[in-house]
């Protein structure tokens, strides 16, 4: 063993015993025999120490009457104690009715020695086994290094042979090219000589000399030396100084200084926002949407499906529903199965379809599961609480509950998930009795207040309040108190706007007001009240009615809203670009020189998610949207 420092050598030698050095020199068979013997010794000594007694015992009787002795209790157990206890009892004043019946001698007085022998046997066998394992570990590393070395040597030898063969072929080709060029030049010279002889045929020697001098005095029309056509026609190289091309074209890589506008914190924002929903769109985890009647669950579900299909147009989605909803076009594909209380099993085929896909994917090896990232499979269980209450007592329904539970707990890695909307967040009421399943669910809760045309009042805030104050949903007491305070703050505004409150259980938990997204659901268009004509409408009517010739008005310049990021948000976005998804700790580590806290980075990330510049996955990691 090679030691790094003298201190390392001293510690290593102090920890190495002579017994283990002798043990290392034994063959493998003898090592196994020694371990087996020590283990057998420990077992034998332990068994011997477990049997018999090591103290003297006294059996006695109680004289209940003058001639009767009672030597057992009501359960036929004899009265007995140790000799030491009997003597101590006598010193303390033993009654005369207690009569010694018999003295039992110890059968195993050396119990401690046997126990110590068992300890030595087990300890020595464990020590030798651990040493043998360490030797095998080192040997396996040497074997791996040897195999890698042989493979590397073989690879280098192969590359060298290929390189030598290539060099040989290159040399042969170069030789052939040189010989060919030499032959061409020789042939050219011969041809030129023959042409010169043909041109000067019939000339005298003096005429030939004059002709040769004439050819030498002619200037070549070709460019010579380092001359180029661009150098001749472009006189810029004759002018002193250089042009600053950056000053003329501008620096394309320069980025403007980000604005210093304050980014609103999600926890303090009171304006309607879609940030809570956008955080979990496309997440590979089952989602539970909870809310009372009229809370807007179906509208939220339609918004999520619309955005989901925009991102994954070829997603495999099925739905079981009490009402004939379209589910963003799933009804036209035959993927919506209506639940009939008189024939409930027909709708359960959707669960079978999704579970069959799950069963197929779970058999795929783990290195190929990344192929499912863009092939999501979803099962929508609409109004599931009422469906469960209808079928819960039927024996055929139990396997379907097991399939649902399996998809919730295991389907995330296979991108097979559920979307359940219900009026209860009690898992037992949904047929999922294990409360730990809740940890594998994203929970969305909504509450709203509305008045129907007939005067009926729908107040569904109660379910939302019960959920955010439930310790099983929000285990942190401080977070529960903060959510309740925010609920009391936003509820009046939600009533006034007629927009639902929404809560998501994704860390960090959020409670916000949803904007009006009813246009995502057919038949739920927002009602627009016209209180009169605008000046632009009146002007148009005047022109059309009386054909008044008016000078064309200047078009109104519409300024596109430019999103200004804070300096921290810009730095976080620059770090995330091209790096995939990163944890908050990774981002903080990259920006630690700037002194930003984790809370500041979380607030900046929340703002970027709200602006749909950064996305968050189901593991709470953040990545820049391309």
Layout of helices and strands:
Layout: H1 6-14, H2 18-24, H3 28-50, E1 57-63, E2 69-70, E3 80-82, H4 83-93, E4 98-104, H5 111-199, H6 205-217, H7 229-233, H8 245-249, H9 275-280, E5 287-291, H10 297-311, E6 316-321, E7 336-338, H11 349-362, E8 377-382, H12 384-391, H13 398-410, E9 416-422, E10 442-447, E11 449-451, E12 457-459, H14 461-468, H15 477-497, E13 501-504, E14 510-513, H16 535-546, H17 567-576, H18 584-590, H19 598-610, E15 614-616, E16 622-624
Parallel strand pairs: 5-9, 5-10, 6-7, 6-8, 8-9
Antiparallel strand pairs: 1-2, 1-3, 1-4, 10-13, 11-12, 13-14, 15-16
Helix pairs in contact: 3-5, 11-13, 17-19
Give a structural overview.
There is one protein chain. By secondary structure, this protein is α/β, with parallel strands linked by helices. It has four domains: 19-54 and 108-175; 57-105, no CATH class; 275-520, Rossmann fold; 567-624, Orthogonal Bundle (Arc Repressor Mutant, subunit A), CATH 1.10.10. The protein has 19 helices and 16 strands. The chain has helices at 6-14, 18-24, 28-50, 83-93, 111-199, 205-217, 229-233, 245-249, 275-280, 297-311, 349-362, 384-391, 398-410, 461-468, 477-497, 535-546, 567-576, 584-590, 598-610; strands at residues 57-63, 69-70, 80-82, 98-104, 287-291, 316-321, 336-338, 377-382, 416-422, 442-447, 449-451, 457-459, 501-504, 510-513, 614-616, 622-624. Strands 7-6-8-9-5-10-13-14 form an eight-stranded mixed beta sheet, sandwiched between helices. Strands 1, 2, 3 and 4 form a four-stranded antiparallel beta sheet that branches. Strand 1 (57-63) and strand 2 form a beta hairpin. Helix 3 runs antiparallel to helix 5 (111-199), helix 11 crosses helix 13 (398-410) and helix 17 (567-576) crosses helix 19 (598-610). The longest helix has 89 residues, at 111-199. The protein is flat. It starts with 5 loop residues before the first helix and ends with a strand.
